C-alpha cells in the first residue's frame, strides 16, 4: 500500500491529467446543481415560507393553488380537528406593481391570514410585505408606496422579508386587502365570499418533525373533498419543478457516468504501463486485492483533491456570474456532489480488476 502512496507523492504530475479532468467535472456538477436549486428555490418561495405547517387544496386540484377552491365550511371543519390550532386563507394572483420610480414589474400578489417563521402577521392597515427580490431589483424600501394592478391600487411597504419568489417577486397583503385590490383591478377574477384558493393549517404542536407532520396531513386529509399536504409535497407537485428536476438530474447523472469512465480509462492505462511492476509485486507475495486497494486509494486521493479544488473554483465562478442568473450553492447539494464524485472514482478504479487478475508474474517478468 505504501508504494502507491509514495508514487502519488513523488510523481504527482503523472496524475495531473485525471486530476484536472475531475476538477472540471466537479465544477460542472456544482454549477448544474446550483442552477437546479436556484430555479427550484426561485419558483417555490411562498410554499417554503410555510414550513412546519400544512397546506390544504381541493381534491381535484393536484396540489396546484390556481386550480383549487376551498369554502368556509371546510375551513371551519379543519379548525375543529384534533392537532390544529389555527386555519387561515391563502390566495394568489399574477399582477403588476409600479415602484416609486415608475418602473413596472411583474409580481405574484398573495393574500394571507397567518404569520409564519418567515412571514410576519398581515399588516392591519392594508400595507404590504414584499420579498427581497423585489426590494433589491427595484430599490424599494420600507415606507415606499407601490401601485398594484391595472387600477394602480396604492399600498405602503411595511416590511421586507427573504426572497420568496414564485418565478416573479411576491407581494403579500392581508386577505381582506387582497380582495379589495383584486376586486378593483379585475372583479371577474375575484373569488366568491367564503371561498379561498387554499388554506394554511397551523398544528397545535409547533415542533412537529416531517414524519409527524405527514401523519397529521394524512389524518386531516380524510375529510371529503380536501387534499392536505406538507410544503415539500406541494413543491414536488409543481409541474415546473418536475420538469426542471428531470432535465437537470438527467444531465447530472450523465456527468457522473462520464466521471466514472474518465477514472476507469486513466487507471486502466496506468495499469497497462505497470504490468511489470505488478508482476514483481505479485512474485514477492502481493495479493490481487492489495494491488486493487492501492489503485483505488490513488483514485480516491486524486478525487479528494479534485473535489476540493473544484468546490473552490465553483464558488469563485458562481460569484462572477450575473446576479440575475438563478444559481444557488446549497450545502446539501455540494455534499451530494462530493460524495458522488468519490464513489464514481472508486468504482472507476475497480475497472482495473480484470487486468490485474490476468497478470502472471512468470510471463510478465520473463
UniProtKB/TrEMBL annotation:
Main location: membrane
Location relative to the cell: Cell membrane
Domain ABC3 transporter permease C-terminal: 251-361
Membrane topology annotation: Multi-pass membrane protein
Chain segments annotated as transmembrane: 15-36, 250-270, 291-321, 333-353
Key words of the record: Cell membrane, Membrane, Transmembrane, Transmembrane helix, Transport
Pfam families the record matches: FtsX
GO CC annotation: plasma membrane
Stated name of the protein: ABC transporter permease
Source taxonomy: Bacteria, Bacillati, Actinomycetota, Acidimicrobiia, Acidimicrobiales
